[in-house]
Specification:
disordered N terminus, Scr1 family TA system antitoxin-like transcriptional regulator, DUF5753, 434 Repressor (Amino-terminal Domain), Endonuclease, Chain A, Cro/C1-type_HTH, 6 strands, globular, 2 domains, alpha/beta
Length: about 270
Amino acid sequence: MTGNSEPESSDSLRAFGEVLKAFRKRADLTQDELAPRVRYSPSFVASVEQGRRLPPKDFIDRAEEALDAFGALRGAARHVSRQPGLASWFRQWARLEETALTLCTYECRVVPGLLQPEAYARAVILSVPPPVTEEMVEQRISARVARQQLLYRTPPIALSFIIEQALLERHTGGTEVTKELISNLISCAELCNVDLQIMPLQQPDHAGHDGSLQVMETPNHQWLGYTEGSRHNQLISDPEAVSVMQQRYARMRSQALAPEDSVSLLKRMRGAL
């Protein structure tokens, strides 16, 4: 997800926020006092209570323990929509991601949402017209943070990313945001289930001229493809068409820097900022 597409609100988020607030008050804690116990900022706690942020699993588990909520928060969390802030045309793909065995992503527009730290995500959202409200920004950031739990899923999903070096050279959001982004990419690349490759600025033989793409292996070993534009998307199930996408992706993997060389480049780029 790259642009400012129409998000959906979630009544279940607001309901969870009310439950959290009730247990916080029962424990006689302020938002500032609860924040260090769940290892999130007071503003994040406030956003969850207001129904503007999707609570990650670690937040729920720590709040459950800190507030002695006897399972109520975990129970309420099971009814929270996992799709707030995602464009309606993206939600089907996002649902498929949750059970996928393999996900391969090539991106030439922005760093993939699964790898975006919050500051970079905010900069991307705010840079694409039309202007949006702060509530919409928070919804979209929350949706991206929630999707990132896929990186740590059990059982693990095999993830492969190919990212254009030009996306990092652009310095979206400024120097500090870019430095945080590169550090996050390095951390993600260290995960055992993640292969991260950088497509160098100079690559005369490049199979990605048709644009960004994703291919996914489902639990029944079917392969699906996905492409998107600013206002549309296409989920592809035709085996012949998906095979072409797999061929493109395989070719780009051979053209991009190896994972080890990609991390080395990222460290040099970070050091130069």
